[in-house]
Every structure is written in C-alpha cells, then in structure tokens.
Write a structure and sequence with these properties.
Number of domains: 2
Structural class: alpha+beta
Order of helices and strands: HHHHEEEEHH
Helix content: 25-40%
Number of helices: 6
Strand content: 5-15%
Shape: globular
Largest sheet: 2 strands, antiparallel
Distance between the termini: 27 Å
C-alpha cells in the first residue's frame, strides 16, 4: 500500500489502517459511512475459493471495484521495471458469463522462519526453481 501511495498522490491523501480479517470486512458491510470505506487484500488470482472473495460476492453491501489507475504500473526507479502489472482475473465462474475484475498483480518472494523444517525449505526451493523464469525474467 505504501508504494501504491507513492505512485498515486490521491492514494497518499487517504488514511490507512493496517487491520484485516472478517471483522473489518463485516464492519465495512454494516457501516458503509463509517471510518473504513475500502478493504484491500492480497491473494492468488487463480484461487476462487477464498473466504474474503466469497464474502464480497455473497454480500449485497459489498462490491469489488476495478483497480485501473495507470500510475500504478510506472517503472520503479531502482529496479527499472514496474512492480505492479494489470490483469483481469475471473472472480466468479458463470454459466454464460464469468465475472472479472481489473486489478493489479505482482510477483512475490517467500521468506520462511529459521525454524522451518527441511520439507518446507525443499518445497520453497522447488517452487522457486520451477518458476524461475516468472520470478526473474530475463532483461
């Protein structure tokens, strides 16, 4: 969110609460004029079986909004490439039409605890090796 606020001055004017969970989503649905008027979460766009997504889709007081501000895919000064990219993942499968939302996506790095066992470290290594071209694209 901090980087989004750097890319878009209007976002920088908003007040941010680093809270989450179903209680905050419920508060947003039950108090539309309350202190919280948006909820941002991070998820895998290929997974439709997420409780936040299910809650939004099944609640008349909540809606998904497009995130399509073109400032958000500006190049990062140090990296020389953008952090965010725009995608339109399906959020709900339909009989004749699917529901999509325009949003930003980004790659991520997984860091584990020092107490992670060998199996967990192997799983992370497998993931990184098998997705190397996606995580570290050639220039």
């Amino acid at each position: 969110w901090k980087y989004m606020r750097e890319l878009n001055n209007d976002y920088a004017n908003s007040q941010t609460f680093y809270q989450g969970g179903m209680q905050v989503l419920s508060q947003l649905a039950s108090q539309p004029d309350g202190d919280i008027n948006a909820f941002l979460w991070v998820s895998n766009p290929d997974k439709l079986d997420q409780r936040y997504l299910k809650t939004v889709l099944n609640n008349d007081q909540l809606e998904l909004i497009d995130v399509d501000d073109w400032d958000l895919n500006d190049k990062h000064e140090t990296l020389g490439r953008s952090i965010y990219r725009f995608e339109e993942p399906e959020v709900k499968k339909g009989f004749l039409n699917d529901q999509e939302v325009k949003t930003i996506c980004m790659d991520s790095v997984v860091i584990s605890s020092k107490s992670a066992d060998d199996d967990m470290v192997d799983d992370v290594a497998d993931l990184l090796i098998n997705n190397r071209s996606r995580l570290f694209p050639s220039e």
